[in-house]
Amino acid sequence: MDEFRLIDAHMHWHAHEQLDPAVLNMVKREFPFLFKENIDSADPTPIIELMKKENVEKGFVINYVAPEVMGFTFKTNEWVIDFCDKSEGMLIPVGGVDTKSHENAGELLRPYLETKSIKLVKVHGPHQLIKPNEYLTGNKGLQNLYETCQELKIPVIIHTGTSIFPKARSRYGHPLYVEDILIDFPDLKIIIAHGGRPFWTMEFEYLMQKFKNILFDISGVPPKLLPNYFPRFHRYADRVIYGSDFPSPGVKGIRKNAELLNSIFDKMGLNREVKSKIFYENANKLIKT
Q1: Is the pLDDT of residue 1 over 50?
Q2: Cβ count near 219 (within 10 Å)
């Protein structure tokens, strides 16, 4: 692979003690290296060492509040801030809030957002058990969250597609729910994660063509399946940001995943300028604003 500068805009690192028991057992089975003797889940050293070895400049650490499915409470925000503070500036904190329980959800996050302690917010329908457009049917907390993020120019990452975790409900991951948000909050910076894979990729591509101001977080998409899932990818490739979803089943490594994607991009005929946007520039702009 050409040695592009590389940012991973979608990584998962969480407090083990907050994980729901069913999720914890699944993670232990899939990623035993995370549970070696004496490993402290609050210590970013292992992921920092990996990133340096693979020449990855920065990584977005995705966290959010999802007590019913994942076990994460509002404390996850303090955890991810502290975790990233110990990373020599290499890790970018992403947080969230339970909009079902707090009508003032955006105001709860405001102190973190105003100080940029949290640089992006995650809305995960299948894990938070909400439709991303649920403000239309009475979720005042979600309305307040979007209003606050739009006001403060904080990007919002919205999960689309399925989730394999035991209590997740994938029906909340339909990308067409995002259309309402794009219409009702036109100045809100939105990143759509995963492209609706595997069921709703056509609907996702419709959104990318209709709305020219949204970004596509490509994490969770197996590189070899990308051309089949997204046949119109070349039309919006300059609005894609690279994410590995590491650690996740099937992901060999942060740079290895990028190398596999780079090979696919070469076959698609994407030029170096567009690939540089995907692997570095688009993500870097998000954290500079």
Answers
A1: no
A2: 26
How many Å apart are CA 46 and CA 23, to the nearest integer?
A: 21
- Report whether 198 contacts 161 (CB < 8 A): yes
Q: Give tens-digit pLDDT for 7-35.
A: 999 999 888 788 888 887 877 777 776 66
Cα–Cα distance between 154 and 191 in angstroms, integer?
Answer: 11
Give the pLDDT confidence of 120-176 residue by residue, as tens digits. 999 999 999 999 999 999 999 999 999 999 999 999 999 999 998 999 999 999 999
Question: Which two tokens mark 154?
Answer: 């904080």
- Alpha-carbon distance of 265 to 98, in angstroms, equals 38
The domain limits of the chain are 10-222
Please classify residue 21 by burial: count the beta carbons closer than 10 Å to its beta carbon, then call 0-12 exposed, 13-18 middle and 19+ buried: exposed
Where does residue 94 fall: left (phi above 0), alpha (psi -120 to 50 degrees), or beta otherwise? beta
Under 8 Å between Cβ of 127 and 70: yes
Evaluate whether the domain defined by 10-222 bears CATH number 3.20.20.140: yes
Closest CA to 120 of 217, 23, 260, 211: 217
Euclidean distance between CA atoms 283 and 23, whole angstroms:
29
Number of H helices, E strands in the chain: 12, 8
* Strand locations in 104-231 (E): 120-123, 156-159, 190-193, 215-217
Radius of gyration of the chain (CA): 18
Q: List, in order, residues 6 or more apart from 228 with CB less than 8 Å away.
A: none
The residue whose two tokens read 């339970």 is 98
Distance CA 287, CA 92 (A): 8
